[in-house]
Specification:
The protein has 310 residues and is an alpha+beta fold. The protein has seven helices and twelve strands. A hairpin with an 8-residue loop joins β4 and β5. The longest helix is centred in the last third of the chain and has 15 residues, at 289-303. It catalyses: uridine(38/39/40) in tRNA = pseudouridine(38/39/40) in tRNA.
Protein backbone atom coordinates (compact mmCIF):
# COMPACT_ATOMS: atom_id res chain seq x y z
CA UNK A 1 0.00 0.00 0.00
CA UNK A 2 1.27 3.49 -0.87
CA UNK A 3 0.59 6.18 1.72
CA UNK A 4 0.96 9.94 1.40
CA UNK A 5 3.04 11.47 4.15
CA UNK A 6 5.03 14.57 4.93
CA UNK A 7 8.62 14.73 6.11
CA UNK A 8 10.24 18.09 6.88
CA UNK A 9 13.62 16.74 5.73
CA UNK A 10 12.18 15.96 2.31
CA UNK A 11 10.50 19.35 2.25
CA UNK A 12 7.25 18.31 0.56
CA UNK A 13 4.50 15.69 0.73
CA UNK A 14 5.63 12.43 -0.81
CA UNK A 15 4.71 8.80 -1.14
CA UNK A 16 6.29 6.17 1.05
CA UNK A 17 5.87 2.42 1.28
CA UNK A 18 3.85 0.63 3.92
CA UNK A 19 3.10 -3.05 3.99
CA UNK A 20 -0.32 -3.37 5.65
CA UNK A 21 0.17 -7.06 6.36
CA UNK A 22 3.36 -6.89 8.36
CA UNK A 23 3.30 -3.15 9.16
CA UNK A 24 6.68 -2.38 7.62
CA UNK A 25 7.97 0.96 6.37
CA UNK A 26 11.07 1.21 4.21
CA UNK A 27 13.40 4.04 5.19
CA UNK A 28 16.46 5.59 3.57
CA UNK A 29 19.45 6.58 5.68
CA UNK A 30 22.33 8.74 4.45
CA UNK A 31 25.48 7.72 6.31
CA UNK A 32 29.06 8.95 6.68
CA UNK A 33 31.91 7.10 8.38
CA UNK A 34 35.64 7.10 8.96
CA UNK A 35 36.80 3.69 7.80
CA UNK A 36 40.10 3.64 9.66
CA UNK A 37 39.05 1.35 12.50
CA UNK A 38 36.58 -0.84 10.59
CA UNK A 39 37.19 -4.09 8.73
CA UNK A 40 35.01 -2.63 6.00
CA UNK A 41 31.29 -2.25 5.47
CA UNK A 42 30.24 -5.90 5.62
CA UNK A 43 29.47 -7.57 8.94
CA UNK A 44 32.06 -10.17 9.96
CA UNK A 45 31.81 -12.35 13.08
CA UNK A 46 33.79 -10.95 15.98
CA UNK A 47 35.09 -7.96 14.00
CA UNK A 48 34.11 -4.30 13.94
CA UNK A 49 32.27 -3.41 10.73
CA UNK A 50 30.15 -0.43 9.70
CA UNK A 51 27.17 -2.65 8.92
CA UNK A 52 27.38 -4.40 12.27
CA UNK A 53 27.71 -1.12 14.16
CA UNK A 54 24.69 0.40 12.41
CA UNK A 55 22.51 -2.72 12.68
CA UNK A 56 23.33 -3.12 16.38
CA UNK A 57 22.29 0.48 17.02
CA UNK A 58 19.02 0.01 15.14
CA UNK A 59 18.31 -3.16 17.08
CA UNK A 60 18.71 -1.29 20.37
CA UNK A 61 16.19 1.32 19.27
CA UNK A 62 13.70 -0.93 17.49
CA UNK A 63 13.82 -3.94 19.79
CA UNK A 64 14.52 -6.39 16.98
CA UNK A 65 17.19 -7.11 14.38
CA UNK A 66 16.98 -4.67 11.45
CA UNK A 67 18.94 -5.68 8.36
CA UNK A 68 20.30 -2.85 6.22
CA UNK A 69 21.01 -2.89 2.48
CA UNK A 70 23.87 -0.67 1.29
CA UNK A 71 24.50 1.14 -2.00
CA UNK A 72 28.08 -0.15 -2.19
CA UNK A 73 30.25 -2.17 0.19
CA UNK A 74 33.54 -0.52 1.07
CA UNK A 75 36.74 -2.31 2.05
CA UNK A 76 38.68 -1.98 5.28
CA UNK A 77 40.05 1.52 5.72
CA UNK A 78 37.87 3.14 3.03
CA UNK A 79 35.79 6.13 4.14
CA UNK A 80 32.34 7.38 3.13
CA UNK A 81 30.76 10.79 3.09
CA UNK A 82 27.72 9.92 0.98
CA UNK A 83 26.86 6.28 1.68
CA UNK A 84 23.18 5.30 1.34
CA UNK A 85 21.36 2.41 2.98
CA UNK A 86 17.76 1.28 3.25
CA UNK A 87 16.03 -0.88 5.82
CA UNK A 88 12.52 -2.00 6.63
CA UNK A 89 11.31 -1.06 10.10
CA UNK A 90 8.11 -1.94 12.00
CA UNK A 91 5.50 0.70 11.24
CA UNK A 92 4.20 0.96 14.79
CA UNK A 93 7.67 1.52 16.24
CA UNK A 94 8.45 4.06 13.52
CA UNK A 95 5.38 6.09 14.38
CA UNK A 96 6.20 6.04 18.10
CA UNK A 97 9.76 7.30 17.66
CA UNK A 98 8.97 11.03 18.19
CA UNK A 99 7.22 10.36 21.50
CA UNK A 100 5.68 13.64 22.68
CA UNK A 101 8.01 15.80 20.61
CA UNK A 102 7.02 17.56 17.39
CA UNK A 103 9.81 15.88 15.46
CA UNK A 104 9.12 13.60 12.51
CA UNK A 105 9.96 9.91 12.96
CA UNK A 106 12.97 10.41 10.71
CA UNK A 107 14.27 13.31 12.76
CA UNK A 108 13.70 11.35 15.96
CA UNK A 109 15.52 8.25 14.71
CA UNK A 110 18.42 10.30 13.45
CA UNK A 111 18.78 11.99 16.84
CA UNK A 112 18.51 8.72 18.75
CA UNK A 113 21.11 7.06 16.53
CA UNK A 114 23.40 10.03 17.07
CA UNK A 115 23.20 9.38 20.79
CA UNK A 116 24.38 5.77 20.64
CA UNK A 117 26.56 5.44 17.53
CA UNK A 118 30.35 5.82 17.94
CA UNK A 119 31.99 9.02 16.76
CA UNK A 120 33.27 7.48 13.51
CA UNK A 121 29.75 6.76 12.17
CA UNK A 122 27.18 9.49 11.54
CA UNK A 123 23.65 9.08 10.17
CA UNK A 124 23.04 12.39 8.45
CA UNK A 125 19.48 11.92 7.30
CA UNK A 126 16.59 9.49 7.80
CA UNK A 127 13.35 9.60 5.82
CA UNK A 128 10.71 7.25 4.41
CA UNK A 129 11.87 5.84 1.10
CA UNK A 130 9.92 6.52 -2.11
CA UNK A 131 8.11 3.61 -3.75
CA UNK A 132 10.43 1.11 -5.40
CA UNK A 133 13.57 2.46 -3.72
CA UNK A 134 16.45 0.02 -3.27
CA UNK A 135 19.70 1.53 -2.00
CA UNK A 136 21.78 -0.92 -4.01
CA UNK A 137 19.84 -1.76 -7.14
CA UNK A 138 18.18 1.61 -7.77
CA UNK A 139 21.52 3.44 -7.85
CA UNK A 140 22.66 5.01 -11.11
CA UNK A 141 26.24 5.59 -10.02
CA UNK A 142 28.73 5.66 -7.16
CA UNK A 143 31.33 8.44 -7.09
CA UNK A 144 34.64 8.07 -5.25
CA UNK A 145 37.47 10.53 -4.62
CA UNK A 146 41.06 9.45 -4.05
CA UNK A 147 43.24 12.13 -2.43
CA UNK A 148 47.03 12.36 -2.71
CA UNK A 149 49.62 14.80 -1.35
CA UNK A 150 52.78 14.95 -3.49
CA UNK A 151 54.30 18.07 -1.91
CA UNK A 152 55.81 18.13 1.56
CA UNK A 153 54.02 21.44 2.17
CA UNK A 154 50.70 19.58 1.70
CA UNK A 155 51.60 16.82 4.16
CA UNK A 156 49.17 17.59 6.98
CA UNK A 157 49.13 15.29 10.05
CA UNK A 158 45.48 16.20 10.66
CA UNK A 159 44.37 14.91 7.25
CA UNK A 160 46.88 12.04 7.03
CA UNK A 161 44.19 9.37 7.71
CA UNK A 162 42.41 10.46 4.50
CA UNK A 163 45.25 11.42 2.13
CA UNK A 164 47.97 9.26 0.57
CA UNK A 165 51.48 10.74 0.81
CA UNK A 166 53.89 10.20 -2.09
CA UNK A 167 57.42 11.56 -2.07
CA UNK A 168 57.82 12.62 -5.71
CA UNK A 169 55.76 15.22 -7.62
CA UNK A 170 53.14 13.76 -9.93
CA UNK A 171 52.51 14.68 -13.55
CA UNK A 172 48.76 15.19 -13.23
CA UNK A 173 48.26 16.03 -16.91
CA UNK A 174 49.85 12.73 -17.96
CA UNK A 175 47.73 10.85 -15.43
CA UNK A 176 44.61 12.50 -16.79
CA UNK A 177 45.48 11.69 -20.39
CA UNK A 178 46.20 8.10 -19.43
CA UNK A 179 42.89 7.74 -17.59
CA UNK A 180 40.60 9.24 -20.25
CA UNK A 181 40.51 6.25 -22.68
CA UNK A 182 39.22 3.95 -19.93
CA UNK A 183 35.90 5.77 -19.66
CA UNK A 184 33.04 3.72 -21.10
CA UNK A 185 31.81 0.13 -21.01
CA UNK A 186 34.94 -1.98 -20.63
CA UNK A 187 36.23 -5.27 -19.29
CA UNK A 188 38.26 -4.25 -16.21
CA UNK A 189 39.68 -7.71 -15.48
CA UNK A 190 43.19 -6.22 -15.23
CA UNK A 191 42.03 -3.93 -12.41
CA UNK A 192 39.77 -6.29 -10.45
CA UNK A 193 40.51 -8.91 -7.83
CA UNK A 194 39.23 -12.14 -9.41
CA UNK A 195 36.09 -13.70 -7.95
CA UNK A 196 34.68 -16.99 -9.27
CA UNK A 197 31.65 -16.41 -11.48
CA UNK A 198 31.81 -12.61 -11.19
CA UNK A 199 31.80 -10.40 -14.27
CA UNK A 200 34.52 -7.77 -14.62
CA UNK A 201 32.62 -5.69 -17.18
CA UNK A 202 31.70 -2.25 -15.84
CA UNK A 203 30.63 1.10 -17.23
CA UNK A 204 33.21 3.64 -16.05
CA UNK A 205 31.33 6.93 -16.31
CA UNK A 206 34.09 9.29 -15.17
CA UNK A 207 37.80 8.89 -14.42
CA UNK A 208 39.90 12.04 -14.19
CA UNK A 209 42.74 13.58 -12.24
CA UNK A 210 43.18 17.17 -11.12
CA UNK A 211 45.28 19.28 -8.84
CA UNK A 212 42.59 20.98 -6.78
CA UNK A 213 42.78 24.77 -6.97
CA UNK A 214 40.37 25.75 -4.21
CA UNK A 215 38.29 24.40 -1.36
CA UNK A 216 39.22 21.98 1.44
CA UNK A 217 41.34 19.86 -0.95
CA UNK A 218 43.30 22.79 -2.35
CA UNK A 219 46.76 21.69 -3.48
CA UNK A 220 46.00 17.97 -3.37
CA UNK A 221 46.02 15.65 -6.37
CA UNK A 222 42.57 14.12 -6.57
CA UNK A 223 40.98 11.41 -8.68
CA UNK A 224 37.27 11.36 -9.43
CA UNK A 225 36.06 7.86 -10.27
CA UNK A 226 32.40 7.21 -11.04
CA UNK A 227 30.71 4.05 -12.33
CA UNK A 228 27.40 2.24 -12.24
CA UNK A 229 29.16 -0.34 -10.05
CA UNK A 230 32.69 -1.47 -9.24
CA UNK A 231 34.30 -4.87 -8.97
CA UNK A 232 36.59 -5.77 -6.09
CA UNK A 233 39.60 -3.41 -5.65
CA UNK A 234 38.86 -1.73 -8.99
CA UNK A 235 39.21 1.91 -7.90
CA UNK A 236 42.42 1.38 -5.95
CA UNK A 237 43.95 -0.61 -8.79
CA UNK A 238 43.13 2.17 -11.26
CA UNK A 239 44.72 4.69 -8.91
CA UNK A 240 47.81 2.51 -8.50
CA UNK A 241 48.30 2.25 -12.26
CA UNK A 242 47.82 6.01 -12.63
CA UNK A 243 50.50 6.66 -10.01
CA UNK A 244 53.02 4.77 -12.14
CA UNK A 245 52.19 7.15 -14.98
CA UNK A 246 52.36 10.19 -12.73
CA UNK A 247 55.79 9.20 -11.42
CA UNK A 248 57.11 8.61 -14.93
CA UNK A 249 57.63 4.89 -14.32
CA UNK A 250 55.17 4.10 -17.13
CA UNK A 251 54.02 5.96 -20.22
CA UNK A 252 50.58 7.47 -20.66
CA UNK A 253 49.49 4.44 -22.68
CA UNK A 254 50.10 2.11 -19.73
CA UNK A 255 46.51 2.02 -18.45
CA UNK A 256 45.12 1.13 -21.88
CA UNK A 257 47.77 -1.55 -22.32
CA UNK A 258 46.91 -3.05 -18.94
CA UNK A 259 43.19 -2.90 -19.71
CA UNK A 260 43.69 -4.64 -23.06
CA UNK A 261 45.76 -7.39 -21.50
CA UNK A 262 42.85 -8.40 -19.21
CA UNK A 263 45.54 -9.86 -16.97
CA UNK A 264 45.80 -8.89 -13.34
CA UNK A 265 49.52 -9.63 -13.25
CA UNK A 266 50.17 -6.80 -15.73
CA UNK A 267 48.47 -4.12 -13.66
CA UNK A 268 50.06 -2.03 -10.94
CA UNK A 269 49.77 -2.53 -7.22
CA UNK A 270 46.54 -1.68 -5.40
CA UNK A 271 47.10 1.50 -3.40
CA UNK A 272 46.35 1.88 0.28
CA UNK A 273 42.66 2.31 1.16
CA UNK A 274 42.85 5.39 3.40
CA UNK A 275 42.96 7.88 0.51
CA UNK A 276 39.62 6.64 -0.84
CA UNK A 277 36.21 8.10 0.06
CA UNK A 278 32.75 7.29 -1.27
CA UNK A 279 31.41 10.78 -1.92
CA UNK A 280 28.03 10.30 -3.56
CA UNK A 281 25.46 7.78 -4.73
CA UNK A 282 23.09 9.02 -7.46
CA UNK A 283 19.54 7.79 -8.08
CA UNK A 284 16.99 8.33 -10.87
CA UNK A 285 13.73 10.28 -10.44
CA UNK A 286 11.20 8.75 -8.08
CA UNK A 287 9.03 7.36 -10.87
CA UNK A 288 12.00 5.41 -12.27
CA UNK A 289 13.32 3.85 -9.06
CA UNK A 290 11.38 0.59 -9.23
CA UNK A 291 12.15 -0.04 -12.91
CA UNK A 292 15.84 0.68 -12.33
CA UNK A 293 15.99 -1.70 -9.36
CA UNK A 294 14.21 -4.46 -11.28
CA UNK A 295 16.47 -4.13 -14.31
CA UNK A 296 19.74 -4.03 -12.36
CA UNK A 297 18.72 -6.87 -10.05
CA UNK A 298 17.92 -9.04 -13.08
CA UNK A 299 21.21 -8.13 -14.73
CA UNK A 300 23.21 -8.96 -11.62
CA UNK A 301 21.48 -12.32 -11.33
CA UNK A 302 22.06 -13.08 -15.00
CA UNK A 303 25.75 -12.22 -14.73
CA UNK A 304 26.09 -13.82 -11.28
CA UNK A 305 27.85 -10.69 -10.05
CA UNK A 306 29.22 -10.31 -6.57
CA UNK A 307 29.01 -6.82 -5.04
CA UNK A 308 32.70 -6.37 -4.23
CA UNK A 309 34.35 -3.72 -2.12
CA UNK A 310 36.58 -1.03 -3.51
Amino acid sequence: MLVWGTDREVGAPHLFVRDCVVGVIRIRCDVAYRGTDFVGWARQPGLRSVQGTLEDALERLMGERIAVTVAGRTDAGVHARGQVVHCDVPGDRWERLPGRSDRTPGEALRAKLGGILPSDVVVRRVAPAPPGFDARFSALSRTYYYRIADDVMMRDPLTAPFVLWVRSPLDVEAMNRGAAPLVGLRDFAAFCKPRPGASTIRELQDFRWERVEQGPDEGLVRATVRADAFCHNMVRALVGASLDVGRGVRGEEWLVQALTSKSRVNSSAVVQPHGLTLEQVAYPPVDQLADRAQAIRARRMDEELLDGGV
